[in-house]
């Protein structure tokens, strides 16, 4: 009974995390359209969340000595890189399209395994890559000569590549006995990301008056400070924390499936709140991208295996998810990435 209640609570937290992450781009785009530079929006998001997470960083200050490379990698790639490229991309292309492109990350990881590490992958993994790429061709409507801004598409692809870079970095040493606490890694990743973005974004040149004004969501005025508060508190702090707790209560595979809902939620919210409509081929293509991403994710190896085939059933036990209590490899959702022994839900996204 207790285990069942724990799984139900974990599922609820995973859904809440997916909803929170999915709303980040929808809240950020009106701020960008109101005149804020995408890099300034990213800096506000990361710096605000870093301040909230300072007590957590202090509690896990031993990570600075134990895992400096991991913290720097998470800060540069999973925080600064993914979010900066994602927010820059949604300033040019629809939110749903940008997030679906990020779901190429698991497929790109398998490309790294096959062509850089020169390790074979299973047929299921190859099928996942083919599905993801084919679905993406439908999303961007390649038959009409790319109906979206090419620069925006490349920026979204760069966000996916940042996820891959962090996945490759974080998988090193994931079998160590003393693994990093995911909340501590998130806290320091936000701090490091904020420092890096301060140099790049130069927030002292930002028009701060815009934050006190209104932004528009599909023509309707919304206070800019309210959107910013959502991005910092809900789409970042709340999303990361609930994502971490949910993976601890669920198996990594289940959490990975729920994470795929982030792209669906982001697309629906952008449709309802921003008026960014997708046509039928794009919706079908998006479903195919998510299906391919899930297959590729579940076939991603945790570490160099004892067996010769990457992504096989005996390769690393639980291939998807970040091996905390579940002991797996890395949870690759949109805009979210898993580190050594750490259920690091985001991005992302993510963003």
Describe the structure.
The protein has helices at 2-33, 38-52, 54-59, 63-66, 68-90, 95-102, 105-116, 123-139, 150-171, 182-201, 224-249, 252-259, 261-274, 280-298; strands at residues 214-217, 220-223. By secondary structure, it is mostly helical. Strands 1-2 form a two-stranded antiparallel sheet. Strand 1 (214-217) and strand 2 (220-223) form a beta hairpin. The radius of gyration is 19 Å and the shape is globular. Residues 305-350 have low confidence and may be disordered.
In short:
The chain has 351 residues and is mostly helical.
Q: In one word, what is the shape?
A: globular
Largest pleated sheet: 2 strands, antiparallel
Order of helices and strands: HHHHHHHHHHEEHHHH
Radius of gyration: 19 Å
Strand order of the largest sheet: 1-2
Provide mean pLDDT, rounded: 77
Oligomeric state of the chains in view: single chain
DSSP helical segment count = 14
In total, the number of strands is: 2
Report the portion of residues in β strands: under 5%
Helicity range = 55-70%
CA(first)-CA(last) distance: 36 Å
- Judged by helices, strands and strand pairing, the structural class is mainly alpha
């Amino acid at each position: 009974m207790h285990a069942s209640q724990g799984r139900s609570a974990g599922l609820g937290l995973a859904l809440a995390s997916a909803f929170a992450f999915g709303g980040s781009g929808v809240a950020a785009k009106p701020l960008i359209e109101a005149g804020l530079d995408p890099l300034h929006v990213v800096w506000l998001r990361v710096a605000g969340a870093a301040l909230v997470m300072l007590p957590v960083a202090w509690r896990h200050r031993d990570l600075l000595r134990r895992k400096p490379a991991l913290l720097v990698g998470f800060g540069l790639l999973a925080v600064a890189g993914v979010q900066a490229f994602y927010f820059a991309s949604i300033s040019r292309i629809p939110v749903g399209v940008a997030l679906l492109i990020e779901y190429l990350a698991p497929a790109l990881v398998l490309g790294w395994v096959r062509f850089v590490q020169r390790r074979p992958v299973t047929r299921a993994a190859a099928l996942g890559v083919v599905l993801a790429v084919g679905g993406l061709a439908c999303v961007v409507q390649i038959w009409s000569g790319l109906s979206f801004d090419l620069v925006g598409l490349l920026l979204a692809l760069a966000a996916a590549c940042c996820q891959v870079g962090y996945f490759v970095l974080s998988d090193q040493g994931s079998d160590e006995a003393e693994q990093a606490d995911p909340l501590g890694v998130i806290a320091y990743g936000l701090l490091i990301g904020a420092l890096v973005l301060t140099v790049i974004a130069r927030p002292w040149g930002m028009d701060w008056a815009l934050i006190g004004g209104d932004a528009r969501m599909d023509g309707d005025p919304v206070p800019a400070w309210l959107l910013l508060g959502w991005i910092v508190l809900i789409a970042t702090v709340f999303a990361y924390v609930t994502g971490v707790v949910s993976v601890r209560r669920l198996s990594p595979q289940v959490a990975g499936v729920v994470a795929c809902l982030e792209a669906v939620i982001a697309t629906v919210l952008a449709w309802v709140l921003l008026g960014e409509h997708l046509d039928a081929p794009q919706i079908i293509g998006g479903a195919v991208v998510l299906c391919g991403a899930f297959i590729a994710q579940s076939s991603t190896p945790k570490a160099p295996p004892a067996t010769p085939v990457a992504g096989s059933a005996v390769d690393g036990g639980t291939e998807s998810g970040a091996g905390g209590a579940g002991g797996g490899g890395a949870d690759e959702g949109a805009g979210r990435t898993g580190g050594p022994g750490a259920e690091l839900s985001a991005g992302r996204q993510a963003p």
